[in-house]
Amino acid sequence: MAVYKQSKSNNWSYKFMWNGEAIRKSTKQANKRVAEQMEAAHRTALAKGEVGIREKKRVPTLKEFAENDFKPYAQSHFNDKPKTLEYYLNGTKSLLAFPKLASLRLDAINAEKIGAYVAQRRDAGLKVASINRELEVLRRMLKLAHEWGKVDKPPQRVSMLPGENRREQVLNTDEEAAYANATSELGQQLEQAYEKALSGIRAKRGKQPHKPDSFLLRDVVAILADCGLRPEECFRLQWSDIRDGSLNIQHGKTENARRKVPMTARVTAMLEMREETRINEWVFPSATSSGHIEKSSIRKQHARACKLAEMETFPLYTLRHTCLTRWAAHMDPYTLAYLAGHSDFATTKRYVHPQAQTVRDAMERARAGQSGHTFGHTTEKTRETTNRVDSENKRQVIESKEENLKVSGRGEWIRTTDLLVPNQAL
Questions:
Q1: What is the DSSP string of 143-211?
Q2: What is the 8-class DSSP label of residue 239?
C-alpha cells in the first residue's frame, strides 16, 4: 500500500500506478488503516472496469426520473411548442398522481402495474383517447430512461388501448353552410349589443364598453374550412406570414408543418378587411399570455353558433378534417400530405374517405383497362363495336375451316387417345 501524508497535513493520501498513469488522491482521513482500505477499494474498482465489470447503479423510481430528468428535458426541447410541452407535462402529472406507479423503480414497471393504472383511470371516467395520451407519455419516459442508461434492460412495452375514437366527422355541404351563416349572424348580434351598450347607463357614467371582435369566429372558420389549417396554426398567424397569396405556416405540430397554403378568394377578402383594423403583428390578437387567441377565446362563440345552426357542438378540428376530405377527391396524396402538413401517409389516410361513386368509378377504369369488361355501363357504341368484332372473328374461323376442307379433302383433324388422325366422312 502506498499511503502517505503531506507535510503539515493530518490526513492520509495514496498514490499508485495504473496502466502507466499515476493515480493520486487524498482520503481526507487521519486513520492510516482506513486510508489503506480506501486505496484498496479504488484499485478494485479500476480492476473491475478493466475486465468489463460495472457496479450496478441504483435504478430511479418513476417519480425521481420524471422530476430530475424527463421534465427538464421536455421544457428545454419543447419550449417553442407550448402545446407539446403541455401534453408532456399534463401526462406526467397524471402518471405521478398514481402512487403505486410513481413509487416503482423503472425496471419494476410491468404490464400488471400499467394495467392497474389503466383500471384506475377508467374508474375515474376517462375516455380511451385520454388514457392513451397518458400511456404515450409513459412509453416515451421508459424509452428515454433506457437510452440514457438509467435502466440496463429494454423497457416494458406499453400498448395502447383499442377502441379510440378518431376525428372522422365530416360536415356535409348543408351543415357547413348553416354553421357559416350562424357565425355571421352571431357577429351581427355582437355588433348590435355593442351599439346598444354605447348608449347604455354605464356609457353615460363614463365607462365605455369594450369593442368586441365581433366576427372573430367567422374569420377563423373561413381559414379552417378553406385552407385546412390546424386550429393552433390559425391562432398563431402573423401578418408577416401572409404573402404571395398564401399562408406561410412557420410553426406546427410536425416537422412538415412548415408549408405554403394558397388562400381562397373568401380568405383573401376577409384578411384584407381585418388588416384595416390591425393593432399588432398578430392576425387574431387577444389579451392572453401568448398575445393571440387560444381555443378558449372562441369556445363560447362556437357553442352559440352551433346552437343557432341547430347542430350538435363539434370540435373546431372537424372543419380542417372536412376540408382535407374534400381536397382528397381532387388531388394526389402527395399534394394532400404537403398541404395538410403531415409527416407520413398513415396520418393522411385518416383524412381520406372515398365516396361510393368515387370507388365505383375507379373500379370501372381498372376493369376497362384490364379486359374491356365493365359493370354494365358500356355505351351503345361500344357494344356495337364489340358485336361487330365478334362476328368478324366467327366469319374468319368458318372461312378457315372451309379452306382446309378444299385443300385436304379429308375434313378436319381430330385428336384421339394415341395420335392425330383426319376426321372424314364414312
A1: HHHHHTTS-SSPPPP-PPPS-PPPS-----HHHHHHHHHHHHHHHHHHHHHHHHHHTSHHHHTT-PPPP
A2: G
Quote the cell numbers at residue 230. 390546424
Assessment of whether the complete model's pTM goes beyond 0.70: no
Strands ordered across the beta sheet of 259-262: 242-243, 246-249, 259-262
What is the rounded distance in angstroms from the CA atom of residue 69 to the CA atom of residue 144?
9
- The number of beta carbons lying within 10 Å of the beta carbon of residue 233 is 24
- Judged against a pLDDT cut of 50, whether residue 405 lies above it is answered with no
C-alpha cell at 405: 376442307
CA distances for 212 relative to 271, 290, 330, angstroms: 17, 19, 39
Q: Please state, in angstroms and as integers, the Cα–Cα distance from residue 166 to each residue in 128, 136, 162, 339, 340, following that order.
A: 11, 16, 11, 20, 17
**Beta-ladder partners of 421:** 414
Please count the CA atoms within 13 angstroms of the CA of 56 that sit on its side-chain side: 4
Query: For residue range 70-123, what is the model confidence (pLDDT) as tens digits?
Result: 999 999 988 878 888 999 999 999 999 999 999 999 999 999 999 999 999 999
In this structure, of 165-174, 192-201, 350-359, 405-414, the range with the lowest mean pLDDT score is 405-414
The pLDDT of residue 124 is above 60: yes
